Amino acid sequence: MQKRLEKIADNNITRSASKNSAIARLNGLWALFERNDTVLIIINADPDAIASAMALKRLLSYRVQGVTIGYPNEIRRLNNLTMVERLKIPIERLHTLSTKDYTKKILLDSQPNHLACFEKMTFNAVIDHHPVTTGWDAAFIDIRPEYGAVSSIMVEYLRAAGIKPSVSLATALFYGIKVDTQNFQKQNMQVADGICFRYLFNIANLNLVRKFELTELRRSELRYFRTALNEVKASNHRAYVHLGKVGTPDILVIIADFFNRVEGFDWVIVSGIHGEKLVVIFRCDGYRKNAGKLAKATFGRFGPAGGHREAARAESPLKNLPLRENQEFTTKTLIRLVTLHVK
């Protein structure tokens, strides 16, 4: 009984310390701003970053003159476009904004040396969950590599501020955590992510979240499935397919995940040409296999390659590939380059 009471007391102390820490961080963030500030939140747009920007905008409501969310990248994935459209999220392309018009700038879900356009700016605050980099500074920094998503950090800020998120905001944060933790399958997922996810579960619109997840394909992209089914070569529990030129590398991921659900395939390797690069997607079950190592072994000498045990990617400029003049890259070429390294 005594040990149980001691454990309860310890848990209460931990919760209290955690709450105090969240409040201290929130107050440190709020202290940066004055009522007449115009704030620019900058993100490299993906579900976690978009949701976090929405939450930060809510946290700064009534505390500053105005908040704008800007992003440099083109949003191509239908999942992400559907999220922005369904939730009516007000975000603007960074190149259409004059950064000089804003008195304060915040970088979310990234760090200043992540993109060249970020390196040219000075940020008042940086909030992120990726490994810490060097060569930059900000007045307020909250970087937690142990967290699976910045959305989890934002939920802690909201709760410390006593703000219950709207259904729209909760849905975005819920989806952001879900995507960045890969449904809690990533190794860096923490208890904090689970607590925030569970809190949002009772507020978010789960039907909308499912709509985001299921909206992956444009009708025009259905033809790639026909090509894949006609072109796939299966051998020794391995599936290989080269799709030729593709409008977006995302379709390679979708096709690879599709074949990865087919019984009997221990390895799935899907490639396609996007622009002047060959993009190769690797999938396996990760049990006594390592997709990241295979990607490096097969294409690492031609360009960036790597990933996790169960999923990896390689991108190789076409000019770097060992092809004869005017030789086309085909599924047979893919098999030849990969097969010696597959175990």
The helix content, as a percent range, equals 40-55%
**Structural class category:** alpha/beta
The profile of the biggest β sheet is:
6 strands, parallel
Instruction: Provide a count of the helices.
Output: 12
Please indicate the percent range of residues in DSSP E strands (runs of 2 or more).
15-25%
Radius of gyration: 23 Å
Order of helices and strands: HEHEHEEHEEHHHHHEEHEEHEEH
Oligomer: single chain
Strand order of the largest sheet: 3-2-1-4-5-6
Strand tally, please? 12
Give the N-to-C terminal Cα separation: 55 Å
Q: What is the mean predicted local confidence, pLDDT?
A: 89
Q: Spans of 5+ residues with little confidence (pLDDT < 50)?
A: 1-17
Shape: elongated
Features:
343 residues, alpha/beta, 6-stranded parallel β-sheet, 6-stranded mixed β-sheet, 12 helices, 12 strands, 19% strand, disordered N terminus
Task: Write structural notes for this entry.
It is a single chain. The chain has 343 residues and is α/β, with parallel strands linked by helices. 41% of the residues lie in helices and 19% in strands. The protein is built from twelve helices and twelve strands. It has a six-stranded parallel beta sheet, with helices on one face. The termini are far apart.
